[in-house]
Amino acid sequence: MSLAFKRVLLKLSGEALMGEDAFGINRTTIEEMVAGIAEVSGAGVEVAIVIGGGNIFRGVAPGAAGMDRATADYMGMLATIMNALALQDAMKRAGLVARVQSALRIDQVVEPYIRPKAMRHLEEGRVVIFAAGTGNPFFTTDTAAALRGAEIGAEIVLKATKVDGVYSADPKTHPDATRYKTITFDEAIAKRLQVMDATAFALCRDQRLPINVFSITKPGALMRVIQGADEGTLVHV
Length: 237
What we know:
Blueprint: E1 7-12, H1 27-42, E2 46-51, H2 69-93, E3 98-102, E4 111-112, H3 115-123, E5 127-131, H4 141-151, E6 156-161, E7 182-184, H5 185-190, H6 198-206, E8 211-215, H7 221-226, E9 233-236
Parallel strand pairs: 1-2, 1-6, 2-5, 3-4, 3-5, 6-8, 7-9
Antiparallel strand pairs: 8-9
């Protein structure tokens, strides 16, 4: 099996865990995600994951209206820890060994984020789940994914979404929108394409860290990305 990447940073949104539910974690959905992760991990790929918390709480969501932004963001970080624990549990059931490292210290529950320890976990074949974003308010989990990806020396950031790539327009409202197979960072900026938030996107561009946006709901999509197939949209320098 030919693999295009040896170490990857997978960005999972909290919303992706909902499946067809209105909120929370859909058990079938999380099991399907874990099956895809187990497939690439079993092939020898070192997988690190940054997970969001939007299925439980988002600091910029309507539910946080009127709330102090920093407080709301910290609540969102706690939501990502809940998702990380659920993901770790699902991985354990699937036979994967996973470790959760949090940017906020909750030592009774998860490990603190320690870069050398995270690197060692990856080298020893464990999946590492990074929770609590960057540990700072006013930064998204997209930014956490770019930051952690750069820190651990990932070869690519894989942004798993419900859409199978980056389109010229919103495919839900523009049926004639076309998917980009590849696009440069500068082209994405010029076309005002919302690949990731601006801070995360700039960090990936500056670190020459490519991004692949793909649909996590498509069976086998993650493995096809790892093999370098035409899956999703590759954003590169």
